[in-house]
Amino acid sequence: MTIKAGDTIPAATLKTMGAEGPVDITTDEIFKGKKVLLFAVPGAFTPGCSKAHLPGYVVNADKIKAAGVDTIACMAVNDAFVMDAWGKAQNAEELLMLGDGNGDFTAALGLELDGTGFGLGKRSQRFAMLVEDGTITHLNVEPGPGIDVSSAETMMALL
């Protein structure tokens, strides 16, 4: 079942890159006591994600944070090494780049995408959510290809 506004973020452990390699980061560490804008992409370095989705958040990071968001997090069903390299390639220093390598958190959210027909395996749907102290206040899932309801500009209008 897909998570919805009003639901609590499920407990999970993701990966981010630390000074000496990948480190665990729990959903409590990410969301507890904070206002977080989390967006997810089907895959790092993929065309739509690299040319449109992530850049919108990078360009608008200061405005988003000025509107009261503590953390802007980008997640994909990729490992922490890939997410770190993609973040560096995209100048995404202001964003928390999260790897959901096995897709466990994505599955717990009910937002999986079956990309096996394209050789991608199980991935995340493209979505964005606002979360306040662990509770989802807004969830926008893209209904198909393209970046509209999960764009930085759309999410900024909700702040």
TrEMBL record:
Q: What is the designated name of this protein?
A: Glutathione-dependent peroxiredoxin
According to the UniProt entry, its GO molecular function terms are: thioredoxin peroxidase activity
Q: Which GO terms describe its cellular component?
A: cytoplasm
Q: Which reaction does it catalyse?
A: a hydroperoxide + 2 glutathione = an alcohol + glutathione disulfide + H2O
Species, as recorded: Parahaliea aestuarii
Keywords, comma-separated and alphabetical: Antioxidant, Oxidoreductase, Peroxidase, Redox-active center
The UniProt similarity line reads: Belongs to the peroxiredoxin family. Prx5 subfamily.
Catalytic residues as annotated in Swiss-Prot or TrEMBL:
C49 (cysteine sulfenic acid (-soh) intermediate)
| Ranges where the Thioredoxin domain occurs | 3-159
Q: Which Pfam families match?
A: Redoxin
Record's function text: Thiol-specific peroxidase that catalyzes the reduction of hydrogen peroxide and organic hydroperoxides to water and alcohols, respectively. Plays a role in cell protection against oxidative stress by detoxifying peroxides.
